[in-house]
Design brief:
The protein has 16 helices and five strands. The protein has 378 residues and is an alpha/beta fold. The chain has two domains: 187 residues, no CATH class; 160 residues, Rossmann fold (3-Layer(aba) Sandwich), CATH 3.40.50. It has a five-stranded parallel sheet, with helices on one face. α6 runs antiparallel to α7.
């Protein structure tokens, strides 16, 4: 079966999406799963009082049938006991664990209706509790992100997130890893994805070739390396970029310190590789590493940002980038958990916003094929 991230995910009004019981092995229900997760994470943003993110999401969905409830009404700084969170449901915590998926889904649909009719913290908390039992791991992970903010971290939530972090589905794994990072940055399931970058070796040549780098927890992935899917597709479709025969790897750890170390490492690597103002393709917080490198004096002919989480403190030195191409999906679930923005504006920035929800899509060749992105700078 194709992964979620290999499929085009379409937004479905949550009141309709929650009428479906999605499963990872059912290709026809993936958009419903992503739309359910989107509402759950938007509700989490409401609970946390993330005004800027909510405003951005509302603008995002203004022209499609994906209206959000008034989620500012669900803000609450105090967590509540699990029993209190389950209270508004028509079944107990024990019943949630043993009832059929369709019965639990019906209860979720009822709570979603209530959330639209008269949004409240109590309805959001109850919806999270029911959605923890979704058979689709993306929905369960999004619910775990919300339940952690309305109740407490407990074994049930930890299990969902750790299992999700190890999923073969990229979107499920990336979302679970980001939620887990918010809760336990040193969790062993995350730290095993951190690498010690290889030592930079000096090469006696100069080059203007394009290079690639990865995002958080992703150094061991292959897509950005020579022989990898996206590397190969870009090399085939854009001979003029003359892709470099190595890619830049950094630790992949999530911290300011790790990214600053990586930026210094990128500066060293660019010099050692004999690169002169290369084009850089960077996914997620690999873009942050690139931006920090510009503040260390590194210059790029162009920066091609693939799903970069927008944080104003990590904007680049624009004078050291010729052009910037911002390629992303709308309503990126992982960036929403990261609390990043999903748009940024500058005269040097050209936007390409296609598709929905999937953080990994921006570095997938199928996504570039579907959206005609190979000529992004034409």
């Amino acid at each position: 079966m194709a992964h979620m991230s290999e499929q085009a995910l379409d937004p479905i009004d949550p009141r309709d999406a929650f009428s479906v019981t999605p499963r990872l092995d059912s290709e026809g229900t993936q958009s419903s799963a992503a739309s359910q997760a989107a509402l759950l994470l938007a509700a989490r943003a409401g609970v946390l009082g993330q005004e800027a993110q909510l405003a951005e999401l509302e603008t995002e969905v203004a022209e499609i049938p994906f209206a959000l409830p008034e989620l500012r009404a669900v803000e609450r700084s105090r967590r509540i006991p699990v029993a209190e969170a389950v209270g508004p449901l028509a079944m107990s915590r024990t019943e949630l664990a043993v009832e059929s998926s369709s019965t639990v889904q019906d209860e979720m649909a009822r709570k979603v209706h209530d959330l639209y009719e008269q949004p409240s913290f109590e309805d959001a908390a109850a919806l999270f509790e029911a959605a923890l039992h979704s058979p689709h791991p993306l929905v369960a992970v999004a619910a775990a992100a919300g339940a952690r903010e309305t109740t407490r971290l407990r074994p049930e939530i930890r299990v969902i997130l750790e299992e999700g972090a190890g999923s073969d589905d990229p979107l499920v794994a990336e979302l679970a890893q980001e939620v887990l990072r918010n809760i336990q940055p040193r969790n062993q399931h995350l730290q095993k994805r951190v690498i010690t970058p290889p030592r930079s070796k000096r090469r006696r040549r100069e080059s203007s070739t394009a290079v690639m780098t990865h995002g958080t927890w992703a150094a061991d992935q292959d897509w950005y390396k020579p022989g990898g899917d996206f590397y190969g597709a870009l090399d085939t479709n854009r001979h003029d970029l003359a892709l470099h025969d190595e890619s830049f790897s950094w630790s992949g750890n999530y911290s300011d310190g790790a990214r600053r170390v990586a930026a210094l490492g990128l500066k060293q690597w660019v010099g050692d590789q004999g690169l002169v103002k290369p084009d850089l393709f960077a996914h997620s917080h690999g873009g942050t590493v690139a931006h920090l490198a510009t503040k260390q004096g590194v210059e790029f002919e162009s920066l091609v940002l693939l799903a970069w989480p927008v944080h104003n403190e990590w904007l680049p030195n624009f004078a050291r980038a010729g052009k910037i191409y911002d390629i992303r999906v709308k309503f990126d679930l992982v960036i929403l958990v990261d609390r990043g923005g999903q748009r940024f504006h500058h005269p040097k920035v050209t936007e390409f916003r296609n598709g929905w929800f999937d953080h990994a899509a921006a570095h997938e060749s199928a996504y570039w094929n579907t959206n005609g992105l190979w000529d992004f700078d034409s």
